[in-house]
Design goal:
This protein is 32% helix and 22% strand. By secondary structure, it is an alpha/beta fold. It has a domain of 171 residues: Alpha-Beta Complex (Spore Coat Polysaccharide Biosynthesis Protein SpsA, Chain A), CATH 3.90.550.10. Strands 1, 4, 5, 6, 8, 9, 10, 11 and 12 form a nine-stranded mixed β-sheet that branches. The protein has a two-stranded antiparallel ribbon with strand order 2-3. Strands 7-13 form a two-stranded antiparallel sheet. A hairpin with a 2-residue loop joins strand 9 and strand 10. Helix 3 crosses helix 5. The longest helix has 16 residues. The chain starts with 5 loop residues before the first strand and ends in a 20-residue tail after the last helix.
Length: 268
């Protein structure tokens, strides 16, 4: 299948579980080992040849607008306070038509994990981790071989893996997903998680679980998540994101107050 060139990053939410870090910046700009989560994501996408990057913004959208360069497309979810991630994805539906990569904005991961997803033979798939951690808040999935049958946070004994992301959709899968998102938006059901919708469509999509090839990943949703991510993150990944920052001439962002740089860099 053609190489996927578009990524849609959902970054509209307020990230209230990560307070006080998100008092003045959106969750995606929360620094992990000195670099914002968004920097790790953009660097990984571009290294893997995904250069059409779309970010759905909402809470403190101007901070993201100030951070990214002109090559990144921003789409605004003006109703972010009363909707959820499926609605944010629907807002960006015009960017789905040729297939796309879906990313939640709180995921830090090594580029090799994304490369594994892009190289998988299946058209529609998502990175999974076969380790199911006790007390984990991650989405989990039931599977038949590599095929995902169902996804949900409440799955327990019959779960085969945790659902990590990123996710990939081919053109046909994206069209089916777009229709379902439009139905939800038209029916005023705008508070669904995007992953819940993926799970509901899994059989029709022939949605595949693509095993994480042993790469580091961390979902940064809470303050303990942030501490744990900074404890575990490989220094090579931090160095990779730092090199990309210097090469891209992007702005660093203070977690404390608007307009203050963490490190001296060139602004975009």
């Amino acid at each position: 299948m053609p190489h996927t060139r578009t990524a849609i990053i959902l970054a509209a939410g307020s990230g209230s579980r990560l307070l006080p870090h998100t008092a003045h910046i959106p969750k995606c700009l929360t620094p992990i080992a000195g670099q914002p989560i968004l920097r790790y994501q953009i660097a990984a996408l571009r290294q893997c040849g995904v250069d059409d990057i779309v970010i759905v913004v909402g809470y403190l959208a101007e901070r993201i607008r100030d951070y990214v360069d002109s090559s990144v497309t921003l789409v605004e979810n003006r109703e972010y306070a009363t909707t959820n991630s499926s609605y944010s994805l629907w807002v960006a539906r015009e960017h789905m038509s040729n297939g796309f990569i879906h990313l939640n904005s709180d995921l830090v991961f090594e580029p090799a994990m994304l490369r594994t997803l892009l190289e998988a033979p299946e058209e529609n798939g998502i990175i999974i981790d076969r380790r199911i951690r006790a007390g984990s808040d991650m989405m989990k999935c039931q599977m038949d071989g590599r095929r995902i049958l169902r996804m949900g946070k409440q799955l327990t004994t019959d779960a085969a893996a945790e659902v990590v992301g990123p996710a990939r959709f081919g053109a046909a899968g994206a069209a089916l997903l777009s229709r379902r998102l439009s139905e939800l938006a038209a029916g005023a059901d705008r508070r669904q998680w995007a992953y819940t919708v993926f799970g509901d469509l899994a059989i029709d999509l022939a949605f595949t679980g693509v095993d994480n090839p042993g790469c580091f990943w961390a979902e940064v949703d809470t303050v303990p998540d942030k501490r744990e991510a900074e404890r575990r993150i490989p220094q090579a990944l931090v160095a990779f994101a730092t090199r990309d920052t210097n090469a891209s001439r992007v702005q660093t962002v203070s977690p404390l107050a608007p307009g203050v740089d963490v490190l001296p860099t060139h602004a975009s």
